[in-house]
Amino acid sequence: MTIELKVEVVAKETIRPSSPPPDHLRNFNLSIFDQLTPILYTSVLLFYTSSTNASSNHRSSFLKSSLSNVLTRFYPLAGRIRDNLFVDCDDGGAEFVDAKVNLPLSHILDRPCPVSLRKLLPIDTESSEASASRLLLVQANAFRCGSLAVGVCVSHKIADASTLSTFIKAWSATALLGNVIVSIEIPPLDTASARFPPLVEMAAISPTVVLPKARCATRRYVFDPAKITPLAASEAVPEPTQVEAVVALVWKCVARISRKKDPGRPSLLSQAVNLRGRLPEPLPQTTVGNVVGGFKVEIRPQAEEREMELKKLVSDMREAKWEYFDNYTPRLSGGRGSSMAIVEAATEFGKLINSGAVDFYNCSSWCGLGLYEAADFGWGRPAWIGFAGVDYKNSIVLGDARGGGLIEVWLTLSEPDMGALDADEELLRFASLNPSVSGPCIA
């Protein structure tokens, strides 16, 4: 009999920076990227085993004190967004939730359930509060066995995956070393907004990008890229990356499901890319905010089977990526012209993602962010890093699997499409469906 995961909130507390920001930093401008970002929270779950003698209360207190210290450096996260233009750094604080879980951690790690994992987060990731209320929320979940899961949600209006990773690294460094500067160099927080300032005319309009909601199902797959990349190699791309190979396989399988229903529909993949190192004047990788773009590649209607071979899809993806870098990123040198280019790209993305004429798949990768190595608050590295299920369809999220070498894919589709994908032989030949975290991932 399956035992339901129950999470009981024990306490909620507001955590403020240990030192408030000076008056001249009270208003923190968003960048144009931030203004155009969908209203939701970027989230991640960090799981720690009970290998320490510290009690759950002690670890919670330690997380709170170190969070207060690191917020002094990341002070906008303790503020509130005003008019989609700036953050009022009013010292309103972040929310910290203490919770108890009725089961041992092994119950989660044996077969992680994307829907149940939502209970370990402090807020619904699609809450509208992301644009008007708390920008940072943390939930410390104490398991019956003494293990701990830390759920972190930060408003996507001020942070992409890279920023959340930078923040967690800085927070854990502060907990371990007492000084964030010792281990991670962070540029001035307004680096992105100074290069790409907000547009006043964007204050009163509706969000440019609204993610499409539906009755969805999320599955977690684990892939061994070493088994896929040789099949994805070609003369055009002799050495595909692991992410390219895995994304191409997933896209091929989900597009095939859709083609069975309507061969005349095109399939469009949008792959998010970190622009920090790709700009005409590159920004440090630790630059805070949203500095993200995305290239698009299409499987045309009535495409022949050879056009959906892995090597062809990877070649098309690589070509689209370099075309994007050659034609779009040179326009991002700063100023009004850059802002208009960013608005145009976001507007096109918003139209496509909600178009009924194409199957649009939105893909992002957390691979290589280094959280397994860095997110040590004093009781060891994470036993696992996971995500939670979402309610917007056609989402593909990649992350590093525990132990390295493997890739986890969190795939969200409409329930009918996911039901059809569950029987896809090619996908299941290369992927393990929701394997145990503590056991072998690939047969």
Features:
14 helices, six-stranded mixed β-sheet, disordered C terminus, seven-stranded mixed β-sheet, 23% strand, alpha+beta, 443 residues
Compute the average pLDDT: 91
Indicate the proportion of strand residues: 15-25%
- β-strand number: 16
Sequence of secondary-structure elements: EEHEHEEEHHEEHHHEHHEEHHEHEEEHHE
What is the helix tally? 14
> Could you list the spans in which at least 5 consecutive residues all have pLDDT below 50?
439-443
Tell me the helix content.
25-40%
User: Rg to the nearest angstrom?
Assistant: 21 Å
Largest sheet: 7 strands, mixed
Q: What is the topology, as strand order, of the major beta sheet?
A: 11-10-12-14-15-9-16
Structure description:
30% of the residues lie in helices and 23% in strands. By secondary structure, it is α+β, with helices and mostly antiparallel strands. The chain starts with 6 loop residues before the first strand and ends in a 10-residue tail after the last strand.
Map the helices and strands:
Layout: E1 7-15, E2 27-29, H1 32-36, E3 41-48, H2 56-71, E4 80-82, E5 86-88, E6 94-101, H3 105-110, H4 114-117, E7 136-142, E8 148-155, H5 161-177, H6 180-183, H7 191-195, E9 216-223, H8 229-232, H9 242-261, E10 267-274, E11 292-299, H10 310-327, H11 336-353, E12 359-365, H12 371-374, E13 384-386, E14 395-400, E15 407-414, H13 415-421, H14 425-430, E16 431-433
Parallel strand pairs: 6-7, 10-12, 12-14
Antiparallel strand pairs: 1-6, 2-5, 3-8, 3-13, 4-5, 7-8, 9-15, 9-16, 10-11, 14-15
